[in-house]
Design goal:
The protein has 390 residues and is of the alpha+beta class. Helix content is 34%, strand content 21%.
Amino acid sequence: MLRYLTAGESHGQALVAIVEGMPAGLPLEAEYINRQLARRQQGYGRGTRMKIEKDQVKIMGGVRRGYTLGSPIALLIVNRDYPNWLEIMDPAPGIVPEEAVVTRPRPGHADLSGVLKYGRRDVRDTLERASARETAARVAAGAVARRFLEEMGIEIFSHVLAIGEVRAQPPSDYALIRERVEDSPLRCADPEAEKEMMAFIDRMKEAGESVGGVFEVVVTGVPVGLGSHVHWDRRLDGRLAGAVMSIPAIKGVEIGLGFAAASMPGSRVHDEIFYDNERGFYRLTNNAGGIEGGISNGQPVVVRGAMKPIPTLYRPLHSVDIRDGKPQMASVERSDTCAVPAAAVVAEAVVAFEIAAAFLEKFGGDSMAEVGRNYRSYLETLREEWPEKK
């Protein structure tokens, strides 16, 4: 079983991720993970925190001389801003200064629900862990999975489809999208729409607002057969939807046509099946987003996420003080105006992890060599035995 855990607070000493179940023999270097962490910190509309932190991972275990060992992989990302928060975030016993105690929860955040659930009197005890800063650890863990998938010929990319009401019209060519987005401040493959998006973000920032949007993650090279229809928690689409929905501020997930399929006749929704000796079974459309019946069907996996505006507003909304219930304006934490491009990179990471986990469940093995043999044997079987030879 491939799994991971993260720990750490937004302004604590560090973020930690532990990845368990990765086979031995995977080439892995810190610099590879650092490149993914840097991508998460980019994007037009980000706040001042991104100018402070330059995320760098330290591999603390599970890797020796550039190769995984099969043991748990321990990853550490130090928070550079921690010395400025030592008095507030020190884990040692002590009293937090009264002026640093947060008692005005922000609408749309975990602030109030968290303090009520865990019985805390300082909202910071919730907001520090609920912060999207935690996703840096997920990107690090996802980078390990991504590196594994690359060895199997599976690649992942993302792009932004909408910011607010401004929608992009990206090209249909995946190679062209990938080429454009890595140099784009909004990970948008439509240059004209991107200009409108940036102007919209500027207007919203000036007004003290935050904005959301929609991103798409595409996984190419996925073989047929990942996931299963036989039980609810093995369905690949359900696992991907849960992973993307778990990213802070994500309020909707689509796979393939998604919600649009509900308003279309079946003849326009379902991907017709063809066969020839060179390509094997194939389809001319991918409305299913690469997954049918909870199982990957060999086409690119396409997942979209809808991100709400970030809860912290520099023009705060109405709230109350949890100490006395009296009306107050919500607290203001340092924040972004728009983090949709960053959320897309985080989504790449969580999608990579779920795809890698499903891959290892299907093909198994304690070493990369063993997994590779199992995978090659499966592909050869598909080629030789289907359709049934007379």
